[in-house]
Amino acid sequence: MNVFLDAGRRVVGLALVVLVAVPVFVVLDPSAPPGALDDLMRRSGFEHWTYTWGVTTGVWTLLAVGVAALAGMFGGGRLSAILTRIGRAIERPPAWSAAAFMGLLGTGFTVAVALAVFQGRPVLNDASVQLLQARYFAAGELAGPPLSMPEFWVMQFMVPTAAGWVSQYPPGHALWLAAGFRVGGAWIAMAAAMGMLGAFSVLSFERLLPGRIAAARLGALLAVTSPMLLALAGAYMNHATVAAFAALALWLSLRAETGRAVWALAAGGAMGFMVTTRPVSGLLIGAAVTAGVWLTAPRREPGLHRPWLLRRFAWWVLGGLPFAVGFGWFNARFFGSPLTLGYTAAAGPSHGLGFHVDPWGRVYGFTQALGYTSTELISLGRELLGTVLPVGVLVGLFLLLARRLDRGERILAAWALLPVLASALYWHHDLVMGPRMLGEAVPAWCALLVLATIGLVRVTRRGWLSDAVVVLVLISIGYGLAVGGRERIVRLGGRVVPALAVTEPGPSLIFVHESWQDRIGARLAARPMRLDSVRALLNQYSPCRLEGALIGAQRPEEVEDRCRRENGSDRLGRLGLTDNLWRGDLPGLGGSGVLWTRDLGPEANARLIAAYPDRTPLLAMPDGEGGGGGLVVPYEMGVAALWGPAPP
């Protein structure tokens, strides 16, 4: 069995090296039109690959020469000996103080990113929708009430059902954000998640890697300072929440080995929460850091026998059962079946895993899986720590060359690599915030990077080459965390849509002017129509043709006049309702503040204004400068500026 396991991990290691060192992404369609996913991922692959292996070759060569000279000054292996003494100093503080320090570090950096860089706002619509769902949870509601005029509020990733208006995303992360809203803000929940990740990464890694305390703490340090993970947390993305609960679940399962069965119960609960946040990665990572721990426990330890395992697994299942029942009930209530996820209800069965035509109408096959995975692994090295260090190659070489992997290394490898497999089988990919589908595995990748560096130093037998490896890694990580990572987070902050300032006192109804295509999509979805069908129509037909069908126009001149007016209203740009709706009063629940809604033109808007006679109508219009900003103006002024006089 060990022979097969060793052969398997060497194959995986070789695959990692090839996927990162070789431009495998060239298999993606070179004739794909600009803006298509194949085109975007192929160009991103070239950008990351050439930057890592081409542009920086000269820099790495100069560094290698300098390191060789430095190593010669110190003598063979003396630099490694110095670092060994530093490692002993890192090990000296007690575990509780190191855990507290990492927790505070993760909390502090997340607060800085969320509030100072991202201004307390999400970067992607995925997070905006989950923030809206969290607001409903915080208000004591499972969902928004069914909308009487849905065209003014329906949006991508929110599903209108007979039981209410609900997010397509599983409820775990929204519940976590709701807890933050209840105590002062969603950013508090994400800061708590990163604090939890820092503390439990230290505690779990130390137990997982006995005798290598310094490596465990350095891995935790890289995790809480990773620009990629901090950006995900600061932008309210659920990947960071899963990563935090994975660290907690790992610590609980390790405690269950020598402690009471209640630790296994808690580990099952932590995994249950992971599954209700991100089902596939929650299942894979959760199983690796809980069941994987017990199945690989050394049998020579007293009490680690079959009855012990059965008891631990029984308590583990019991801990996860309430989450399974609650998740199934939630899905049945809103989507018709305990096993039907919101993704499927929103976009149809093509949203699932596997090779098929995706909800956008694009073919996702083995070629795309190979090319996208290569691109993601190459970019992981650059995004993980803000440096050009080829993390995938270092980890791959470690898996390939190590004589054997101990239990802790195998569990960390499973945590890091299982999401890569899941992502390869999933049609959705993007690099907006790095390879974010691998975000929940960041702590494991960071720990493996430390272990891989140490392992490669041992392979080079502590000579001048080992000194070169250590210094190159340290310089790359130091530069990445001090300069490259900070720059990447600041660049992401530039994508944040500025908040619209509202100065009108009292309850108000603010119409947000979105693009013509967005308005058409909302009117189609309100019919109701599933998201994949809406996307298909928007991709297949021009906005003018769809507009004519929606208004039931018979005469060509009538359609032409309507299309000219709709298109002309966008001349100053567009805003996003999703960016703002979660910040104000919630549709269907009343309130005395701002209720954001969609601008559908003065004739349609009049119906909504009549339904809310106690609210002052205002209009949020683009500022015309192209930066995504806008201003809130009196309703009549905004209508006149965007829509002109009403048609006769």
Low-confidence stretches: none
Beta-strand fraction estimate: 5-15%
Major sheet: arrangement of strands: 6-5-7-8
Q: Tell me about the biggest sheet? A: 4 strands, mixed
Number of domains: 2
- Mean pLDDT across the residues is 89
Structural class: mainly alpha
* Contiguous helical run count: 28
- Overall shape: globular
- Helix fraction? 55-70%
N- to C-terminal distance: 81 Å
* Number of separate strands: 8
Radius of gyration: 27 Å
Mind explaining what this structure looks like?
This protein has 28 helices and eight strands. With 648 residues, the protein is mainly alpha-helical. The protein folds into two domains: 2-342 and 358-493, no CATH class; 508-642, no CATH class. The strands form three sheets. The protein has a four-stranded mixed sheet with strand order 6-5-7-8, with helices on one face. Strand 7 (616-622) and strand 8 form a beta hairpin. The longest helix has 30 residues, at 306-335.
Keywords, please?
mainly alpha, 648 residues, two-stranded antiparallel ribbon, 5% strand, 4-stranded mixed beta sheet, globular
